[in-house]
Amino acid sequence: MTTTITILLTSVFATAFISGVLSLGGGSILMGIFGWILPISTAMVLHGITQAAANASRSWIYRDHIQWHILGYYFIGAVICTGIFSWLAFVPNKAVLFLCLGLLPFMHLLLPQGYALDITRPWNAVSCGFLVSASLLIAGVSGPILDIYYVKTSLSRFQIHATKGVTQGIGHVVKVAYFIVILGLVEDGLGPLPIWIFIIVIPVAYLGSIASRRVLKAMEDQQFKKYTQTATMAVGAIFLTKGIHLLLSGPV
Questions:
Q1: What is the 3-state secondary structure (H, E, C) of 135-165?
Q2: 8 A C-beta contact, residue 23 and residue 161
Q3: What does the pLDDT look like over 176-186, one tens digit per residue?
Q4: Exposed site from 58, 134, 203, 224, fewest CB < 10 Å?
Q5: pLDDT digits (tens, 9 = 90+) for 41-86
C-alpha cells in the first residue's frame, strides 16, 4: 500500500507540473496511471479531485487572462451532455478507458483539410462543451479534444491556460459528482485507498502547478502549441496500445 500511495502522489505532482507547462498532457498521463493501478470508479474520482485542484490553481494563477465571454457558450454544451450521461448512467471499462485515452490526441486528424475549430466562436464553444464533457465522463480526460478548439486561435498561452483551467476545473468537479452522486460509485466503492488520499492530492497538485510557472514564462507561444501537440500524441500512442491489448485479452 505504501508503494502504491508513493506512486500516486509522485504522479500527481509530476503531471500537474507537465500540465502547468503544456496546458494538457499531464491529465491524460495521470488518468492512465490511475486506471492502471486502481478500479475505474476510484480512479475517476481521485483523478477528478486531483485535476480539479490542478486546473483551479492554474486558473487562479493566471486569473487576469481568463476569457469570460467564452465560458457561457461552453457551459451550455456541458450541461446538455451531463444531462444525457446522467440519464444513461454510463460507466466505462478499462479497455474503453485506454482506447479513448489513446485516440483523443489524434482527433484533430478527422477535421477536413484547412478547417479549424475556434473556441472564441459561440457555436464552436457550445460543441466544445458537449464533446469535452462527454470525453471526461468516458475517458476521464478531455485535454486533446479541448486543444483542437484552442490551437488555431489568436489567444496567448496565458489566456489558454487560464480559460482552460476554469472549464476543466469545473468539468472535473462534475465528473466526481457523476461517479459519486449519480452512479453511487456503483463498481467499486472507494476502492483500496484511505480517505485522506482524496484530500492530500489537492495541495500536491497545487504545488506541481506552482513549480511549472518559471518554465511556462520562458517559452514562446509557438513553442508552447508545438510541444503540446507532440507530447499528447506520443502519450496517446502508448495508451492506444494498452487499450488494444486489453480489448484483445478478453473481458475486463
A1: HHHHHCCCHHHHHHCCCCCCCCHHHHHHHHH
A2: yes
A3: 888 887 666 54
A4: 203
A5: 788 888 888 888 888 887 888 889 998 888 889 999 999 998 998 8
User: Which residues neighbour 54 within 8 Å (Cβ) at sequence distance 6 or greater?
Assistant: 15, 16, 19, 20, 26, 27, 205, 206, 208, 209
User: Residue 135 half-sphere exposure, CB side, CA atoms within 13 Å?
Assistant: 26
CA distance 247 to 132: 24
Q: How far apart (Å, rounded) are the C-alpha atoms in residues 172 and 195? A: 19
DSSP conformation class of 24: S
Question: What letter does residue 181 receive in the DSSP assignment?
Answer: I
**Is 66 within 8 Å of 59 (Cβ atoms)?**
yes
Helices (DSSP H) in the chain: which residue ranges? Answer: 2-22, 26-37, 40-61, 68-88, 94-103, 122-139, 143-148, 157-177, 197-211, 213-218, 221-249
> Coil, helix or strand for 178?
helix
107 by DSSP, 3-state: which? helix
Cell numbers linked to 124? 464552436
CB 232 within 8 A of CB 93: no
